[in-house]
Specification:
Layout: H1 2-7, E1 17-25, H2 33-36, E2 37-38, E3 43-53, E4 58-66, H3 71-77, H4 80-87
Antiparallel strand pairs: 1-3, 2-3, 3-4
Length: about 100
Amino acid sequence: MARAVHEKGAALDNVWGFVDGTVRPISRPKLHQNVMYNGHKRVHAIKWQAVNAAIGLIVHLDGAVEGKRHDAAMLMMSALCPQLEGSSAEPIQKGKPN
């Protein structure tokens, strides 16, 4: 998958998926409105974080979190970074021994 992304013009040769935070609007809650309010979209919401593979599959889904959370905060709250670091591999370079 990383090869296909790189061939489409990505600067890096090890990108196989894309992280995205999604805002899903909800009805205004009676309690804790400030926690659920997303100032960027100006709606009360629940947020989700997904990793979409280059072939269109959702390979990781995390949430739901409060609408006020920033995407970077969702990434830190999820276990995604340690999972990726634990399962990453050094890309094979042409002309280099393994």
